Amino acid sequence: MDYKNSGVDIEAGYRSVELMKASVKETMRPEVLGGIGGFSGAFSMAGFMGMEKPTLVSGTDGVGTKIQLAFILDKHDTIGIDCVAMCVNDIACAGAEPLFFLDYIACGKNYPEKIATIVGGVAEGCKQSGATLIGGETAEHPGLMPEDEYDLAGFAVGVVDEKDMITGQNISSGNVLIGIKSSGVHSNGFSLVRKIFEMNEASLNTYVDELGATLGETLLTPTRIYVKALKSIKDSGVKLLGTSHITGGGFYENIPRMLPDGITAKVNKNAYDVPPIFSLMAKKGDVDEHVMYNTYNMGIGMVLAVNPEDVDKTIAAVKAAGDDAVVLGETVNGDEGVIIC
Length: 341
Prior knowledge:
Layout: H1 10-25, E1 32-33, E2 42-43, E3 54-62, H2 67-73, H3 79-92, E4 97-107, H4 112-129, E5 132-140, E6 150-161, E7 176-181, H5 190-196, H6 201-204, E8 207-208, E9 213-214, H7 215-220, H8 227-235, E10 242-245, H9 250-254, E11 263-267, H10 276-285, H11 289-293, E12 300-306, H12 311-320, E13 325-333, E14 338-340
Helix pairs in contact: 1-4, 3-4, 8-12
């Protein structure tokens, strides 16, 4: 009896590391100390000592049940982007620059090529956000997980000067809400998605005219990473008053997280065209509009609060970073949290 016979293939682990090294290397920043494959990752803070009060900001998350679509379609190259996005978008909301990322993959069986493909997606997400993939772990769980399944989670660390942190505390009545558009459903609400649509290969490979793609392609579209857009706004000289990453809980849960007491966000749902995937889900699943806005991003992945005089400059900066933005509404006095009208 040996470890391999018990279900853990150490040689496959070595093979996975070799296959992923090229992808990981492409994410390296100059602050990284040491090479790939050590017991820990080291990152120099020397470059940030010029800040008045350098402050570390961290975030951790996973991909949720969206990962089941990757299993069904045997498509694993974008799920890592989702994992990075869910973490770095959160820390970017505080005004932080992502520095490094670590991933954790638990699998029933280590198939080196599959693991390397997953990590390749993680590396792509890191490149999009400017973070280094400084380390990670792949753990085989024979007997606990099916051989062809895995779970993916991640952890990100960023830095911001304390004086530049986005806290939302200065938001007041009369500020303007700007929405940065999403790339689709992103990585939240898939437990409901899986109830609305049949989760099989035939259904997911069906071309849907109103989507202009197959259902699977639409749903697996990776989460948009907003780090560059927020950095572009900062570089333009605009002081963001508040930011909200629209994840699970949709508009109703996430927008109030950036608002001080006594301030309500008034959102104009007709300010932009809701992507057809959300209309399709609402119709096919007979999902109430309030539930949709309480579960999904509805085409807006990030909401910003700015002063009225900064609206044009903010939208221009977002577009310069390759994203699209719209004036979504305004802040008013009140304790309703969010009013969608």
